[in-house]
Amino acid sequence: MRRPRSRRCRAAEAAAAALLLLPAAACGSRLPESDFEHRDHPSATARAPLRVGILASATSPVGGDAFTGPGDGARAFFDRLNARGGIDGRRVEVRTCDDGGSGVGDNACVHRLIDEDKVVALVATTVLDYAGASRVSHARVPDIGGQPIGAAYDTWPHLYGIYGSLAPRDGTPGWHGTLYGGTEVYRYFKREHGARTAAVVSYNQAASAAYARLVERGLRAEGYRVVAEQVDFALPNFRAVAADLKQQGADLVFDALDTHGNALLCKAMDEVGARVTAKVTNVQNWTSTVPDDYRDAPRCRNALWATGSSRNLDDTGDPAVQEFRTATRGLGTHSQWQLEGWAAAMWFTEAARSCARQGITRACVDAWMNRSEGFTADGLLLPVVFERLPEPPKTRRTCLSVARWRDGRGWVSQGDMNRTCFDVPQLPYAP
């Protein structure tokens, strides 16, 4: 049975780190084991390679490594795949392009990858400004497993975001320019932990404030008392905010801040003795670097929770997670975005293998993607659904993955992501 999932919180949360130009201090789908075994055909280097493109804002105003995780994960998967024989005896050749975080750079990268490198598909796209999305779509190049920063994956056909989409994707974002999504994250903390008061901390900057208002609206829809806190972007007084959080008795803290701002907020919370049930972060900050990022805030650090749509990167008892961790151990640090990039590469591989007999072309891969339903990347993802609904749903049953940071243990999964599900309202928001 398919489990449709909301994208409002996922897409908006994934965009949280990109909303500021900040200085950064087929259900049961499974990749056959044969993809990771040597085959009785010519080696992967004996036939023409299969080119894929990875488009990322590897350098951008947000920070040097803010958007590299998915690409790192995808490349690790393809390296492992090539070592085991490639796809139908063909090595996967990865062509990368750094768009620098600008629309001009993005268009240039799209031109290079599609028109010059002739890639069969893009995989794990992660960019600050996907200005070239329409060009990708018009060229009918499948973009597989990209991160939905912005509305491109709810706007254009031939683009398949890692979390799926229900929108018509007819060239207009969402439904007539409006996107919809659910309140499952807020419902979770209300039902599972009895949270009733939630604080939302933002900068006095337009994009940050807009994202904060979106979070506040969802919290109020779930019956929370909301405490809105705003700090000056240039000279933030996080200690004053932390003191007010303590006085207001906040159970939860959400934010529209960068990683550095979050670390300073947590430090201030520890200093004033503000204790909360959860300091909630998003999938982009679901990383192994927490001890360094929050080294001055041990109490707040151990109150960090992350939510998303993929299996916890520290759930190494799961065979698919363990395979990912083994293949990426040379990276030094690990992140949830790396795991999702790995899943995106797995998704492309399954599509390409299905086309091997008739020829691995853009059109064949895209047709397979357009029919794909309930893909899970061997259980790493919640089932991914693409539908073109003429009208947005009013409610949806939505599942989510939840983990909590614990010193000495890393990210600890909180329940089964395939059973942590809620029937929640779908609220409109502007992209």
From TrEMBL:
Report keywords, A-Z.
Answer: Signal
Query: Gene3D superfamilies in the record, alphabetically?
Result: 3.40.50.2300
Q: Which domain of life is it from?
A: Bacteria
Question: What's the name of the protein?
Answer: ABC transporter substrate-binding protein
Record-annotated Leucine-binding protein domain positions = 49-407
Family of this protein: Belongs to the leucine-binding protein family.
Q: Which positions carry the signal peptide feature in this UniProt record?
A: 1-26
